[in-house]
Specification:
two-stranded antiparallel ribbon, alpha/beta, flat, 6-stranded mixed β-sheet, 16 helices, single chain, 55% helix
């Protein structure tokens, strides 16, 4: 499934009523429509994943990828300090940005580090920067510049739908920031809503993953198992926001090694064992994190536990056998599996630990 389709589904943009905005590396702005727009007024039409709809899209690489550059290049020591202190660099940035009123003078940031959505010759810049400005003002400028780039695309979309009723459903990194979401609402002059899930594309693509799993293993997953898998992803997603992703994967992998032992424990014993395993890997968990991991483990257990993980681990070998058999009807299975594994790596690394990848 196309990732922009997946995000639209995850925020419930499934008809012409609302608009989906994805503020990630790219500025994606889209809505489903019964008929394509063929007059060249929008960047792209594509077949939507829901029958009878096209996805009308305006996009450019002018979104939150610019913010990541700002953090990596201009705030490296602050990022390192925040990590050491167990804080989020994004929370610090949000506090900086929120300290300014909308009318305060800050530089104008042109978010064209990768490319421009107005002129191929345009480059990124801070316009109006002076000696009184600090990285705080520059952070506010980055947020504003990215937001106004989305507004540029929204105005182009609106040429095909002059009725500005409806709501913008926001996904991507900006949706995790209250101050940035409010800025989107102010700049777009439309209501903006977010959803509780952070990895929206990951959640929406789960049905395709389930179908691929069932096709490749010839073993159906019952509805309860599918819902539990989705819940497990949400738990892992929440945890990855609090714990270093690599440490979380390491801890989940260690828990998998002790699966049979842990499955036999009471809830209190499970929490104590999780703390012990975390300590062995140099991690200290608070009570909330310990409970989240315990809940996640129970969800994995209810899906099928180590047997489920082993079956997923066996899929590459199964696919290779299918390839060798030369059965044309299944010749695309390898591509399907490669795509699934690539998806796991790129948008939800914690799934690899959960499902034994």
């Amino acid at each position: 499934m196309f990732d922009i389709d997946a995000c639209a589904l995850a925020v419930n943009v499934t008809d012409e009523t609302n608009i989906c905005m994805i503020a990630g590396t790219w500025s994606i702005n889209e809505y489903p429509r019964r008929a394509p727009i063929t007059d060249g007024s929008v960047l792209m039409n594509s077949l939507f994943c829901l029958p009878g709809y096209y996805l009308i899209e305006e996009s450019s690489p002018t979104s939150a990828g610019n913010n990541q550059w700002f953090i990596d290049r201009l705030l490296p020591e602050l990022k390192a300090e925040a990590k050491t202190a167990g804080k989020s660099i994004y929370d610090i940035l949000n506090d900086w940005v929120d300290s300014f009123a909308p009318g305060d003078f800050v530089p104008v940031f042109l978010p064209f580090l990768t490319a421009s959505n107005v002129d191929p010759r345009a480059c990124a810049a801070f316009v109006g920067l002076n000696a009184s400005h600090s990285r705080r003002e520059m952070a506010r400028a980055v947020y504003e510049g990215i937001t106004f780039s989305h507004r540029y695309h929204l105005d182009r979309l609106m040429r095909s739908r002059p009725d500005r009723s409806g709501t913008i459903r926001l996904a991507g990194g900006a949706a995790r920031s209250k101050v940035w979401t409010q800025m989107f609402a102010d700049v777009m002059n439309m209501p903006v809503e977010t959803v509780s899930a952070e990895e929206t594309g990951a959640l929406a693509i789960l049905p395709a993953v389930f179908k691929a799993y069932e096709t490749l293993t010839c073993q159906p997953l019952d509805p309860e198992a599918k819902e539990t898998a989705a819940a497990a992803l949400r738990e892992a997603d929440a945890l990855s926001g609090e714990l270093d992703t690599s440490k979380l994967e390491e801890l989940l992998g260690a828990m998998t090694d002790f699966f049979d032992e842990l499955a036999a424990l009471s809830d209190n014993e499970l929490r104590e064992r999780i703390r012990s395993i975390a300590a062995e890997h140099g991690m200290t968990l608070n009570d909330a994190q310990t409970q989240q991991l315990a809940d996640l483990f129970r969800k994995i257990q209810s899906i099928g536990g180590s047997n489920f993980a082993e079956r997923v681990q066996d899929l590459p070998e199964t696919v290779e056998k299918i390839r060798e058999s030369g059965e044309s009807a299944l010749s695309t299975a390898g591509t399907v599996w490669d795509s699934i594994r690539g998806f796991f790596r790129s948008v939800a690394k914690t799934l690899s630990a959960i499902f034994g990848g």
